């Protein structure tokens, strides 16, 4: 009868889970890995705190971000994470390091498209977070780089935030000394930039359930 009790306990746990519960996988680089500060100060932790206050116990945020990650590395890492966590929403915040290394935008586009498709194949809603790079890389490259995010998002059916550092990049009070990474003061602003798309994805996920 032990197995019957185990099955009964599993059914009870599933019945107690909120119908609208969602898991969110944040798949990014140093911007989402809270580089240069404690992880609790990062925008991903602030997101988790906001969701817990507004919807206690209903949502789970998994931060799989790695500082220095490129889209090449992301393509390799994502399948195992999708299998492990089975997220309802996937936030892809990659590409900045590709640009800083001067890698071809076309290659980045292929990798982003692949990650979006992999995520959508698991029935996850996808949010693509875009980035821009400093003008010293030259106008042709910076324009080609920035254009990748809206184009691949439209082609692959992902919601797109064109520039994650809008109103933050270039503002010394909000950036670390390296001029690349936002500081702790900027983290609430990052959350506010991402929140409209995240909120819409959560509402869509709730409606589907």
Q: What fold name stands as the CATH topology? A: Rossmann fold
If classified by CATH, what would the architecture be?
A: 3-Layer(aba) Sandwich
Text of the CATH class = Alpha Beta
H and E string: HEHEHEHHEHEH
**Spatial arrangement of strands, main beta sheet:** 2-1-3-4-5
Q: Helix/strand-derived class?
A: alpha/beta
Globally, the shape reads: globular
Beta-strand percentage range: 5-15%
Give the number of helices: 7
Helix fraction by DSSP (H/I, runs of at least 4): 40-55%
What would the average pLDDT be, to the nearest integer? 91
Overall strand count: 5
Distance between the termini: 33 Å
Fold and architecture overview:
There is one protein chain. With 209 residues, the chain is α/β, with parallel strands linked by helices. It has a single domain, classed as SGNH hydrolase (Rossmann fold, 3-Layer(aba) Sandwich). The chain is 50% helix and 12% strand. It is built from 7 helices and 5 strands. A 5-stranded parallel β-sheet has the order 2-1-3-4-5, with helices on both faces. Helix 6 links the parallel strand 4 and strand 5. The longest helix is centred in the last third of the chain and has 22 residues. The protein is globular. It starts with a helix and ends with a helix.
């Amino acid at each position: 009868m032990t197995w019957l009790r185990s099955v009964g306990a599993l059914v009870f746990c599933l019945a107690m889970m909120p119908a609208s519960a969602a898991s969110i996988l944040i798949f990014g680089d140093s911007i989402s890995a809270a580089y240069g500060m404690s992880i609790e100060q990062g925008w991903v932790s602030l997101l988790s705190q906001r969701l817990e206050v507004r919807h206690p116990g209903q949502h789970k945020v998994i931060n799989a971000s790695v500082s220095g990650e490129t889209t090449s590395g992301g393509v390799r890492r994502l399948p195992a994470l999708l299998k492990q966590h089975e997220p309802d929403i996937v936030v892809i915040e990659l590409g900045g390091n590709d640009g800083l290394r001067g890698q071809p935008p076309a290659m980045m586009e292929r990798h982003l498209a692949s990650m979006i498709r992999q995520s959508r194949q698991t029935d996850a809603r996808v949010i693509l977070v875009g980035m821009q790079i400093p003008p010293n890389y030259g106008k042709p490259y910076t324009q080609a780089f920035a254009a990748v995010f809206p184009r691949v998002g439209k082609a692959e059916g992902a919601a797109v935030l064109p520039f994650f550092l809008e109103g933050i990049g270039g503002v010394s009070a909000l950036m670390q000394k390296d001029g690349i990474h936002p500081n702790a003061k900027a983290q609430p602003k990052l959350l506010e930039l991402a929140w409209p798309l995240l909120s819409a994805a959560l509402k869509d996920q709730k409606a589907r359930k």
